[in-house]
Amino acid sequence: MSNSKLWKQIISCPTPFLIAEIGVNHENNMQTAKKMIDEAKKAGADAVKFQTYKAEKLAVKDSPAYWDRTKEKTDSQYQLFKRYDKFGEKEFILLADYCKKKGIIFLSTPFDFAAVDFLDRLVPFFKISSSDITNIPFIRYIARKGKPIILSTGAATVAEIDEAVSTIMEKGNKVALLHCILDYPTQFEDANLNMIKHMKNIYPDLVIGYSDHTVPDKNMLILTMAYLSGAQIIEKHFTLDKSLPGNDHYHAMNPNDIRIFKDNLNFIIKIGGEYYKKPVACERVSRENARRSLVANTTITKGQIITTKMLTMKRPGTGVSPRFFDQVVGRRTGQDIAEDEIITWEMLI
Predict the structure, then answer these.
(1) Is 291 a member of any domain?
(2) CA of 47: how far to CAs of 103, 199, 206, 236, in Å?
(3) Is 90 a member of any domain?
(4) Residue 317 maps to a domain
(5) Residues 93, 122: contact at Cβ < 8 Å?
(6) The predicted structure's pLDDT at residue 156
(7) Using DSSP, how many helices (H) and how many strands (E) does the chain show?
(8) What's residue 1's pLDDT?
(9) Could you say which of 241, 272, 303 is where a domain stops?
(10) Consecutive 10-residue averages of pLDDT for the chain (349 residues)
(11) Given this model, what pLDDT does residue 62 score?
(12) Rounded Cα distance, 32 and 250, in Å
């Protein structure tokens, strides 16, 4: 499938395009990475996403941590990134091929220029991290590849988003923006899902989605609310075991979480139904029997002129509708009508 066709599929799909971000939760193990791809596919994810970086290109050695150190105890960004940066071009080629074989889209966020270059032939579109939203030279370099770009907007001002979007669109690339809170983990009260609606208002021509860093709630209501707020793309970290220590396991969804979320979406679509207001098939019998008809309030003999006192309104609605009350009053009867008999047009002359 071409990049443009895939992009049209994403923006026209009735449910969000779901990216299961494996990131570095494979912990440098190829078999684990493949198993995570398998499980994400079986659970219903549309894509899996990795992270492609080398620690020495990403952070200085004394770069301070910005995550919850009760969950991830490493004090230095460099130390943490160094622990998980063993996959390189060879590994990502293998993983991209494996994804193709399994029928799921392969993505990986690049964090340096070399990663952009070799990922270019592996990914249908690029994902740029919130951390690089002000890295204009890097954004410009990615945009030159000519592919659609998904940009996370965690911790960004509207002015910063505008500058990044303008840089991308200078090259004519299609753009999607993900509302994101750059806090690990994000507390529920900090999710600010209403910002999705704001972004849809200020960027009406762009695809808007959500990248989530909350700890999954048991009913997956955060992601469900993001969809109801208008998110067309949803990205969330993915793991097979939330109890694993450190890194991104503790705020990641697992395969069962994906299934719960997908069930929520299917139920919402099921109850959403049609857009245009009209009677539906299941209402046919009720429409006839639960509505009222004009009914004789007394015995009416043939030839009488009907007065208001001769009429009442009762169920079922198989006779003349009460909406024609004024047209019936003053009409002459063509037959005898018994008290409590439903009036039909054939009885009138």
Answers:
(1) yes
(2) 9, 23, 20, 11
(3) yes
(4) yes
(5) yes
(6) 98
(7) 13, 10
(8) 63
(9) 272
(10) 78 90 96 98 98 95 81 82 94 98 98 98 97 98 97 98 97 95 95 98 97 97 98 98 88 98 96 94 97 98 98 98 98 98 98
(11) 86
(12) 17
Q: Which of 247, 272, 297 is the last residue of a domain?
A: 272
Lookup: tokens for 73:
């105890």
- Judge if 8 and 130 occupy the same domain: yes
**Distance from C-alpha of 212 to C-alpha of 148, rounded to nearest angstrom:** 21
From edge to edge, which strands make up the β-sheet containing 47-52? 105-110, 47-52, 17-23, 233-237, 207-212, 175-180, 149-152, 126-128
Global pTM reads 0.90
Two tokens at 304? 């009488």
Q: Per the structure block, which two tokens stand in for 260?
A: 């719960």
- Concatenate the DSSP letters of all residues of 98-163 into one string: HHHHHT-EEEEEE-SHHHHHHHTTT-SSEEE-GGGTT-HHHHHHHHTT---EEEE-TT--HHHHHH
Rounded Cα distance, 297 and 310, in Å: 5
Q: Is 280 a domain residue? A: no
Q: At what angle do helices 255-272 and 30-43 cross, to 10 degrees?
A: 20
Q: At what angle do helices 221-228 and 255-272 cross, to 10 degrees?
A: 40
Give the pLDDT of residue 65.
79
Domain extent, residue 237, equals 3-272
Within its chain, how far is the Cα of 238 from the centroid? 17
